[in-house]
């Protein structure tokens, strides 16, 4: 099963705006794993994160399928997950 890995940081302004959107996405039944870019450098390196917020879609094996950077609406994130 695919999941979304949401990479953000507490000091990031856009991340603060996007956090509630990702919480609603998780509440809709889509698996979301939130990671702190400052604390989880291995994920930052693994997924090639250069800017935050970044959302990575990964497959059941943890391999990256796709990713986007920046703030989106709840529906855009759901469409990304389902796409």
Could you list some keywords that capture this structure?
alpha+beta, single chain, 36% helix, 83 residues, globular
Question: Can you describe this structure in just a few lines?
Answer:
This protein has 83 residues and is α+β, with helices and mostly antiparallel strands.
Task: Give me the side-by-side strand order of the main sheet.
Answer: 2-1-3-4
Mean model confidence by pLDDT:
96
The residue ranges in which pLDDT falls below 50 over 5 or more consecutive positions are: none
> Which structural class matches the secondary elements?
alpha+beta
Distance between the termini: 14 Å
Radius of gyration: 12 Å
Topology pattern, helix = H, strand = E:
EHEHEEH
Count of separate DSSP helical elements? 3
Strand portion: 25-35%
Helix content: 25-40%
Task: Report the count of strand segments.
Answer: 4
> Which geometry do the CA atoms define?
globular
Assembly state of the chains shown? single chain
Major pleated sheet: 4 strands, mixed
Structure description:
The protein has about 80 residues and is α+β, with helices and mostly antiparallel strands. About 35% of the residues lie in helices and about 25% in strands. The protein contains 3 helices and 4 strands. It has helices at about 15-25, 40-45, 75-80, and strands spanning about 5-10, 30-35, 55-60, 65-70. Strand 1 (about 5-10), helix 1 and strand 2 form a beta-alpha-beta unit.
Chart the SSEs and their pairings.
Elements: E1 3-8, H1 13-27, E2 32-36, H2 41-46, E3 54-58, E4 64-69, H3 74-82
Parallel strand pairs: 1-2
Antiparallel strand pairs: 1-3, 3-4
């Amino acid at each position: 099963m695919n999941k979304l890995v949401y990479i953000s940081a507490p000091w990031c302004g856009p991340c603060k705006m996007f956090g509630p959107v990702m919480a609603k996405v998780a509440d809709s039944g889509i698996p979301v794993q939130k990671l702190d870019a400052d604390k989880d450098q291995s994920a930052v390196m693994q997924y090639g994160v250069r800017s935050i917020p970044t959302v990575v879609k990964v497959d059941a094996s943890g391999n990256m399928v796709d990713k986007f950077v920046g703030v989106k609406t709840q529906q855009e994130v759901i469409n990304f997950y389902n796409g």
